[in-house]
Amino acid sequence: MTELTPARIPDGIYELEGKLFMKDGRGAYLPLDSVPPRLKLEDETVRRIMGHIIASSEHARRAKLFAFAELDGLDGVLAQEYKVQKRGARRGNGTYTTVDGLFRIKIKVHDHIGYGPEIQIAKELFDACLIEWAADAKQELRAIVTNAFKTDKEGNIDHAALQVLLSVESDDERWLQGQRAIVDSARSVSTSVYLNCQRRETHTDKWETVSTDLAKV
Prior knowledge:
Number of strands: 7
Mean pLDDT: 89
Structural class: alpha+beta
């Protein structure tokens, strides 16, 4: 296996008017001679480690780009074989496997959903239903509506909670219009494509993910 060349990391030493300095955490210059040896050793150790980590991260990024390019090329060949014109970015999930079944690559495409102004109309419609049904509406139903329109710190609505609300049936026209407003408000704001590489020693072994995440290695 080829040894990975560490990334170049600056030594953190500056020369000013013929004298050597290091910067502290606020950006102030410290004479090099005034920095305790233990702090210099810690500094050197962290920089040495970061050189390897940054190089590994860049290598993993390039490997991921390589993988997607190769798989896109494979998809193109398969499309030609079936006389299908391949268009645009990857749109669906897929699994690619070696003939012996010991290595496989899984691609997962995840759309991040946002909600437009129609979502506020939906909330008003559901609230109107609950107000009129006050005497008969169950607490469980109120909780479903409340949870559906809760937002997190970034103002995002829980997609799963909205799906639960969409599954609740009612013949009230306002309820049906509220569900329609939710569907109309949904829009894809971004797409993430995940690469999951797996391997196993024999056909009876469980699949193991080949991780590039240092926390999982």
